[in-house]
Amino acid sequence: MQRLNIDLGERSYEILIGPGIRRRAGEFLKAVFKPSRIVIITHPSINELYGAEVAENFAAQGWTTDIIEIPEGESSKSLTQAEKLYDHLLELNCDRKSVLVALGGGVIGDLVGFIAATYQRGIPFVQMPTTLLSQVDSSVGGKTAVNHPKGKNMIGAFYQPLLVVADLETLATLPVREYRAGLAEIVKYGVISDAKFFEFLETRHKDILNLDHDCLSHIIETSCAIKAEVVEKDERESHYRMILNFGHTLGHVVESLTGYTRYIHGEAVAIGMVRAAELSVTMKRCSAEIPTRLKNLLLKLGLPVEMPDLDTSAVIESLYHDKKTMNHKIKFILVKEIGSIEIVDQVSEGEILAIL
Q1: 252 labelled catalytic
Q2: Which residue intervals of the chain are DSSP H helices?
Q3: 134-162 pLDDT, tens per residue?
Q4: The domain spanning residue 190 has which CATH number?
Q5: Residue 77 belongs to what domain range?
Q6: What pLDDT digit, counting tens, does each position of 251-296 carry?
Q7: 178 is annotated as an active-site residue
Q8: Count of domains in the chain?
Q9: Annotated active-site residue in 143, 205, 323, 331
Q10: 241 noted as active-site residue
Q11: 176, 195, 208, 281: least buried by Cβ within 10 Å?
Q12: Which of 43, 248, 323, 331 is catalytic?
């Protein structure tokens, strides 16, 4: 088992990475906190696979443990679903020492984190990510949110978990499409921070697609370490942490304008990364080789790279709702070279339209 520490003073916590560790989550939690009760929140399919064994280990520590199921899909990241969960927690008489456990992917992690941040002004929670995307990205760093019809993750809070328990065995039951979508975030880390890591992904893409255990351990640990370093420097995204949004500016627009049903998050990010790299070329920030290498790697990993046919005026309007946009200026994360990016404070509508 690998241990990574997120150093945020009194909000510090560990990321645990390894095979089979979901069955020891109660032991890990006992070392850092004593709950009054445990509430596991998950999807029905995840509950069927892992719910009983995870709950069993929490119960073995002497804690009353309940499981709440919510529907699959991005549409569950809503204020309507949040209200239903508040009702459940009140019915269970949950107090400020109750611990919520987010067992699932990014939707579960974001929603449960938001509930934990807001129920009784904040209660503890544990991230148990079961998808590749959530293990390398959404479970780490304390971003929690629900969606609004006008934009993804528009309602939320920065709220750190007590612990992250990432079990590599859960990736074996992940649908192929979900697994590949998670690889987009891993590619992102190579682009923004580590050229050698990007080269590793290029040379070992077949092993990665075949779920080679050594490759998985390496790419997940490396991705989490990069994100941990960024979060430690800028926990609340005042500036530097925005580099983690590479590919997300247009990616979120693609998700939103297709109703969160056509693409899953990593697929939209893949499309957004290619467009951001092409924008970098048109703005003379990098060479034409960069988007070509990026596109080739994403295609080898089975990810989409082409923009869907969207109304360009709707795209521009949606960009003005992006959380990075301030004073009506659209920000983009652009590439200088593989392993090095920059935050550009103002990109014109004309420059954006040119790469659409």
Answers
A1: yes
A2: 25-30, 44-46, 52-59, 79-91, 106-118, 132-133, 176-193, 195-203, 205-209, 213-233, 248-257, 265-282, 289-300, 312-319, 349-355
A3: 999 999 999 999 998 887 889 999 999 99
A4: 1.20.1090.10
A5: 2-173
A6: 999 998 998 889 989 999 999 999 999 999 999 999 999 999 999 9
A7: no
A8: 2
A9: 143
A10: yes
A11: 176
A12: 248
